[in-house]
Structures are given as structure tokens and as C-alpha cells.
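So, who can interpret the following?
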Amino acid sequence: MRHSVPRTPFSTSLSGSAREIEIRIRNIFAGPKRRPSLPLMLLAAALCLLCGNLVSCQQRPMAPTLVMETQYYDNYGNYLEIPVLALPAGEENQAVEAINEALNELREEYAGLASWTGGDAWENQCLFYPSTTERYLNLLFFQSRFTTDLNTGHVFSLVYDLKEGAVVSSGDALALAGLNERALLDQVAEQLEPEMNPEGQAYKIALHNLTLEGFRIKTDGQPVFYLTGRMDDVDDSLVDAVSGADQLFIWEDRVVSMYAQYGLEKPALVPAEETDQLDPPLWNQWYFAGEEPAGGFVDKPLLEPEYVYIPGEDPYGNNFFSVLLNCYIQYSDEWNVFYAPWQEETDKAGDLRVTPTYLGEIPWGEDTCAAAYQVCYTFYIDGPQGLEWHANFEDIVLERSTKDGEFTGLLARMDYEDRMRWMTAEEIIQEATGG
């Protein structure tokens, strides 16, 4: 019995030649070859763009808020500005946590600053320069302390990428400038060379220990780098033509400048127009406006040394200068050793000028006292550009009679150090004599 297959719209006949059947089967699986309509294509494209924007918005992390947790200014010139980054409740970000941990470590460096005494009590400064762009949050700090030997200030920086929610490394910043660290250091040294060694200079100056310390990223996406280095003789053991000094350098748009940190009024490290304005104001806001911090300075009691004085018209005593100069008798064969309270126009090469400053005295023996003096002894030499002078400082302790004021000789001496600035005469005498 023969059965006929019913015809439907979903069936196709396979009768005919094998070639015809192959072509028809390929057409079935290939589907229609009509192009979709233009409106349908535009709608699909719009949906793709919308989805992309939605995904992008969802991926951008919550921006942290800058909160000034530590802000302290006292009449000893101690200024401390250290913030913390805060996220909305329930939000977490490992990069923000890492930055806050670094800020806490910075804060620990100044723990108990309000109660510090002696030479450590003066002019410890951590000055904050925040700057925010559409992409980056820059936390830049200038750190310095009081010193007599011109130690440079230092820069500490933390940069947060607001788009990626990540900490920006120095390597990332160097890549933005199209440099690596070696290329940056070479570029800085090359630009400073003409300034260090102008034509006709008889001695050679070099840049020692050049170090990249920090950076920030500007609105245009380009970094500014902060470096430290010491300008000094190439080799002091061969030629000591200058008294070297540490410096802070700023690299911006491939141009290097030196930060004037040793002036009576150091300039802002970051231009005011690029610095975030906070409330209460930061040092860079109130200082350059000729104002004081909000609420004024913390009034710390001054640390006045309590010296013990022996009555007498002249604290130097009767035969002080002859005993003083005798302390430097070892130089007399080569140098003209003499006392003078200050530099004179008659000073010449070969002179050794000795200048004492009375610090105070304490009872020493049954009828003697120990008197402390800080002595500046200055050598004058012929240098490449004329008369040069080189000053050295030390503390000496002399013994003298409480009956007639006559000095009997040297008890002890030691090189002066910055920490001794705020030591009492008794503390200096005890340390020098080992008592």
C-alpha cells in the first residue's frame, strides 16, 4: 500500500537530482539572506552603548572623603597636618585601607609631639598639600625639622586613582611621563649641571644621592616629581671648596627647579590654584594669607634652661682668654690664633679666630666651679674665588676658682651637636666630663 506524505509549509520535497537536493538543503540551513532593517540595527547599537555605560558606571568605586584627623600648631613652630580617608558606611576598598595604614604610620612619627622637650621640641613640621583632579586624589606632605646643618626637607606622597579605586605607584607615574626612574634621575642631573659648574669655575661640584621621593598627578594627567640630593664637592677628601647642602628638586614638564626651602619664607610646594581648600584651613592657606591657624597656636611653656651663676661682673673671669687660646695652642705653628667676637675686615688667610659664648656653670669642687662655653673657631684660607672661611663648633668646660675667679684649666671638650641647643649647662658639663 502506498502512502503519500502530506505537504505542509514546514516540509520540502527531496525529489529531483542529487545536485538540486544538495542546493536546497544548504539553502534551508543558511536561512534567509535578507539584511535587517536600518531602524533595527540602530536600536541594537543604542542598546549596546547603553549597556556599556551602565556597566562602566557600576564599576567606578565610591570616592573616599578626605577628613583632617590630625591638625596641630604650637608656638614652638611644630605644625602637623595628617588626614584620613573615609568611605560611606558599608563600603570597603583595599587601596583606601592601604593609604590609611600609611597615614597612620606617618602619624606615629609624631606621637607625643606636644610633650617633646629639648632639641626635639622645635619646628617639627609635616605640611599637607592635597589636590584633587577628575581622576586622581593627591596627598602630598612636606616634612622638615629645625637643624643647624641644613638637612633637607623631605616629601612623602600617596596618590589614589578615583576611577580604578587603586593606589598609584611611582612606576605608574613614571610611565605617564614616558620615563623610567634612571631616565628621570639622569634628566635632573643633566639640567642641574650648568648651575653647579658654570664656565670658569675652578672646582667641580657634583650631585650626590639623588633620590625620587614623591609625586603628584595634575589635571592634565601628567606627573610632577619631587627629588632630593646633595650639592657638594665631587670628593671632599681631595678638594673641599664648598660647604655642601641638601636640596629639594621639582621636576615638572621636563623642567627642573630647586625648591627654596632655606629662605626666611619658603614658598608653597604646590601652587595655590592646584591645592584643595579645606576648612579649617591648612598651613598653606593661613600662612600665605598672613593669618594664624583657626583657634590660634597651642601655647606651650618655653623651656628656659636653669643655669647656676657664680656672682661676678665678667662671666668670662679674670684670665679666661689666655686659658681659652691655650686650648687651641696645637694650631699656633701653622695658624695665627687670636680671640675676636666677630669677623673683621682685617681677617686674612692663615688666621684662626676663636669666639666663645658663655653657657653657664655649676659647682664642681670644694672651692671651684665648672663653666661651659660654646666655641666657634674659624679658619681663613685662600680659595679659588678669594678669602674663604670655615667654621667649626665645640663645647668646652673650664674649671675656675670661686675665690678669685681665676681659671685653672680645661676639664673637657666635645664637638657641638644640634641637640645641645636646648640642653642646660649642667647637662652639657655632665655629658662632656662623663660625670
User: Anything to note?
Assistant: DSSP finds eight helices and 15 strands in the chain. Residues 18 and 24 are 10 Å apart (CA to CA). Residues 1-19, 304-313 have pLDDT under 50 and may be disordered.
